[in-house]
Amino acid sequence: EAQVTQNPRYLITVTGKKLTVTCSQNMNHEYMSWYRQDPGLGLRQIYYSMNVEVTDKGDVPEGYKVSRKEKRNFPLILESPSPNQTSLYFCASRGTSGSALRPGELFFGEGSRLTVL
Amino acid sequence: GQQVMQIPQYQHVQEGEDFTTYCNSSTTLSNIQWYKQRPGGHPVFLIQLVKSGEVKKQKRLTFQFGEAKKNSSLHITATQTTDVGTYFCAGRGGSARQLTFGSGTQLTVLP
User: Fold this and answer.
1) pLDDT band at B29 (very low <50, low <70, confident <90, very high)
2) Looking at chain A, which residue has its C-alpha nearest residue B102?
3) pLDDT attached to residue A96
4) What confidence category does residue B3 fall into, taking pLDDT thresholds of 50, 70 and 90?
5) Quick check: A102 contacting B, CB < 8 Å?
6) Is the Cβ of A95 closer than 8 Å to some Cβ of chain B?
């Protein structure tokens, strides 16, 4: 089954304790991206990756890091989490060629709800 | 930077009534996508529009892309309880290489 898998799904942590949210896709997609979702703000892009070893900042990259060492994985790293990073995080992927039926479709993971105390 | 505004933020309708959400961009878009997010779920792709003035239908859902490619709408005819969720538009345009999401419209359907 084609899917994007995120872990953990829920996490409560404390300020300053480094954490990593993993994201893995099994669709051989070149493009992967991280978003955060906050009430009234929609989905804001944190970082994205066009392919292995190619990453770039989105609209709200401060306080986050990413890496893309393998095509299937795109972890999101919070080196020193702060309460303003409490949010719902989504990883998404897309093939560059796309589907003729559903061109440009972004496939989202189930989401990771992070609380930083 | 590119901004995509979406209204209304919330909409409550009686089952069977129609519903429309609107999306407006500060810049001309090359394409626009629509997603649906059920409560507690993740966004799921509905459609992509590319051409000026394009209209596409999926059963009771009608999607439009404006002639100037700066606005779009999603209209649901005769809503059902299964339509409950938040609808997002997402546009790509100008110098932006990435999709910019609207803030979403949260639809509640009262039985």
Assistant:
1) very high
2) A42
3) 72
4) confident
5) yes
6) no
User: Among all residues of chain A, which has the CA nearest to that of B50?
Assistant: A103
The verdict on A88 touching B (C-beta cutoff 8 Å) is: no
Q: CA A37, CA A60: separation in Å to the nearest integer?
A: 11
Distance CA B88, CA B46 (A): 10
Give the Cα separation of A41 and B54 in Å (integer).
Answer: 27
Q: What is the pLDDT of residues B41-81, one digit of tens each?
A: 999 999 999 999 999 999 999 999 999 999 999 999 999 99
Amino acid at site B2: Q
Nearest CB to A58 within list B6, B98, B102 = B98
**How far lies B27's CA from each of A89, A93, A117, B24, in Å?**
27, 25, 39, 9
pLDDT digits (tens, 9 = 90+) for A61-104: 999 999 999 999 999 999 999 999 999 999 999 987 655 567 78
Strand order in the sheet with B4-7: B4-7, B19-25, B71-76, B61-65, B55-58
Chain A residues inside the 8 Å CB shell of B100 = 45, 59
